[in-house]
Amino acid sequence: xxxxxxxxxxxxxxxxxxxxxxxxxxxxxxxxxxxxxxxxxxxxxxxxxxxxxxxxxxxxxxxxxxxxxxxxxxxxxxxxxxxxxxxxxxxxxxxxxxxxxxxxxxxxxxxxxxxxxxxxxxxxxxxxxxxxxxxxxxxxxxxxxxxxxxxxxxxxxxxxxxxxxxxxxxxxxxxxxxxxxxxxxxxxxxxxxxxxxxxxxxxxxxxxxxxxxxxxxxxxxxxxxxxxxxxxxxxxxxxxxxxxxxxxxxxxxxxxxxxxxxxxxxxxxxxxxxxxxxxxxxxxxxxxxxxxxxxxxxxxxxxxxxxxxxxxxxxxxxxxxxxxxxxxxxxxxxxxxxxxxxxxxxxxxxxxxxxxxxxxxxxxxxxxxxxxxxxxxxxxxxxxxxxxxxxxxxxxxxxxxxxxxxxxxxxxxxxxxxxx
Length: 420
Fold this sequence. Notes:
The protein is an alpha/beta fold. It contains 18 helices and 14 strands. 47% of the residues lie in helices and 15% in strands. The strands form two sheets. The chain has a seven-stranded parallel sheet, with helices on both faces. Helix 3 (57-71) runs parallel beside helix 4, helix 7 packs parallel to helix 9 (184-193) and helix 11 (241-257) crosses helix 16.
């Protein structure tokens, strides 16, 4: 089955490269790293280290506590982070400017994967969240490289997708040495996909162990002073087009109640920066791009953040957070960063990707679910007019995070065990 998969992948590789080239017309990051994607001529690898594969920005943010902990270990092994997307690459370089090497992950072609392992000769391969690549797993097993699935999660959609290739998926997962699942539900789904239950442990979510960067609150106070300390600030983080449409419709109603409110939109993908700003202008709001107007003039109604890796900074200076991806039928994004900073959280109807976390936030009084723009506007107006409720929801979120910590310790113990 894996041989047929490899033949099919070789056949579609030209189309994958064409896709990268087309994406490169909007994001030039897709035009770089060609040699790395085939593991050709990459230099500077230090063998005998740990490879952490984090496909894109979300996985990198989850990996941040683990990477920082590994960098602080008494015995320091070379660390290499691999990503698939340019935004992931940029985020990796921002989060870890020193002490970590970054390369694009090789395509899951037998030759590319074998060349990559020959160059890196790792003692451990860590896969963040949900990435099952048959050749990567096969050759890691063949070369006796332990595989640790860290912060592992499996959505219902992913189970169905992998289920179409059950034999191939099951064979790949036989090479996993240890899987640290985020929740009992994720563990059940991993078992359904074919992982050995004896190699599985429910460790929790690494994002509960996130740390607040130093200087964040100071930067937030400075921005709030520039914008107007008493000015209400709403943020919609990691948004997609569907989220922006709903939030902007709600914002029109909010301005009728709180006319000096500032809305911060943080698009999930850089290719949407300009389109998001134009959508806000077309909706009738005075809109600025963060790169053009970092101080945000008093007359600005909507600020579009056209940079990557700064979401935490903007959460820190906001009053309420709307979580992107939850009004788009993609399953939502993680609300824990907003909760960690004491923000009341509002989500839309689609939170399948983080179902357990979102449901726990709602159950603990830290988040509210809405279905449409009118409901969103109603809840936001209530929260902006009730500081005690905002603080109560924010404190509930922070308390839940404190109680959820522990995944990092468990994952580090697995790392120590696997590398001996």
